[in-house]
């Protein structure tokens, strides 16, 4: 059983992560590093701890024990597990981007406002935030749809908006949880292309939970989890196609 | 599996569903208790002596008419909350092949059962509050046991609440029966037309003109009171027409000026449904209307009370003021409760989105501020707008009242402000930081 997965120059380092829900060990002593500028897929059967690992690395959930350290370039290392809820919330909105399966877009807002919101919660004035949001949406092929409400966009377009929101803040690490899980294969492939371009294609790190082997093959590394442990850490030969 | 069996199975909710069910029962409890207290108060006037009765009962009827709107909004909030609690389960039933009739029957049985439990609790609450309400004085004496309604009237009120729940459940589920996926469809709401404002302002001008000439008409007191009450009724309809337009205008202005995330979100929440935002706070408009008209009336009666010493009319000023304050308080309490219920339902309904946004790094405090603003902006707009509009409607009386009895006018306005504060405080119950605390991570 592979228990650690170290790399040099990691942007995130996790050591001895333990997390239990009752008698179930979602994380059972995991050590893992995420190298800067790489794409890492996390695979495994349902209940293997994939999402729990992603949540622990992103500071969404605290492990029962173990450490998660964030090493952003030019900044002092941050012990994520030592931060309180509000500090972790601040860290997530400033340092990370997220793309979830459901998109998590606010239905009352337009596409550009959803993207701008990520900047506005970080204190960017509305006019500047909207300008950057429009630019990000146009780069992702959504020109002319900036003022549409979320209900007026297709599933693939909604995920593009979510990707624009994840990258507009300039986050160094993007976490994605089944980002193409709710899309048909063609749309899913297009969304994945865009996600790769916006993350590793721009020197950022991507940590992605997926059930889909073909999606995982697009990353540099594939971590396979079983019962809260890393059972395989494979490098993908051809590397990511961004 | 028969319909009753399905209704019984769906009545056992998850933990978050249990909160919604408790809220729904609580909402129906408040609706029933408020209806019974209001009817009990009106009923107590039937025990007054002949001449006083002839004056007090039409006034009580007027107060009842004014309270119908906030009570209906409260009842509708409770019914919607009940329907929301069933939405997903009923949608699944429909997808599993249950017929439209079966889905309707399950919805009605569940809504009626919840409303019945709430209404019974409401009767208990009414009986518990009655001793306190009985201390309120009219004609120089406490209401006393006259607050208790006859059993038949109490049963009729309970039945009315049940009927309201059934009608609301059926209306809410109409779309669901047509298509199982309808609940997930979000359509754009058209903006209220400016024509509403034109019609409403035109109606107010006509009423104002009519009122200024009404004293010259050769009719008896009864007809005069009927004309005045009808005029106010039309005035209220006009206000109801202008309300959504006014809320939409303010929402648009707030959207243009929004700089912070909560301001942007709040403005968009208002513009999502200006009609809904208006209905939520329409009770405040009624309260502002009662405050200005009733407050001016109480002040005017006080001015003439020296002439009627020794008769039932000597209590008129104090009693009108009491009536105004009671109507005002009940109206604002209804708004506070219905706003709190709707906001709770909204927060629970969107818990996946809010928790997801929290994961993204959005502080739930931002979401909470937006929700509070989305209620308080329309509430304050309506309170200020309708106080000014009502004062304009009875300008000579209002200005005279302000000059002659500033304390009476001040008392009424303080209660109005206190009511707005209660509405603001009631929204704390729907704070997602508290309501979703168990799910927002460690």
TrEMBL record, chain A:
Annotated ranges, domain ABC transporter: 12-239
Organism domain of life: Bacteria
SMART domains on file: AAA
Any matching Pfam family: ABC_tran
UniProt GO molecular function: ATP binding
SUPFAM superfamilies in alphabetical order: P-loop containing nucleoside triphosphate hydrolases
Keywords: ATP-binding, Nucleotide-binding, Transport
Xref: Gene3D superfamilies: P-loop containing nucleotide triphosphate hydrolases
Entry-linked PANTHER family: ABC TRANSPORTER RELATED, IMPORT ATP-BINDING PROTEIN
Protein name: ABC transporter ATP-binding protein
Species the sequence originates in: Glutamicibacter ardleyensis
From TrEMBL, chain B:
Domain (ABC3 transporter permease C-terminal) ranges: 63-177
Residue spans crossing the bilayer: 20-43, 55-74, 95-128, 148-173, 194-211, 223-247, 281-303, 315-341, 379-401, 407-427
Record membrane topology: Multi-pass membrane protein
Intracellular or extracellular location(s): Cell membrane
InterPro entries for this protein: ABC3_permease_C
Pfam families in UniProt: FtsX
Signal peptide per UniProt: none
UniProt keyword terms in alphabetical order: Cell membrane, Membrane, Transmembrane, Transmembrane helix
Name of protein: ABC3 transporter permease C-terminal domain-containing protein
Species per Swiss-Prot/TrEMBL record: Glutamicibacter ardleyensis
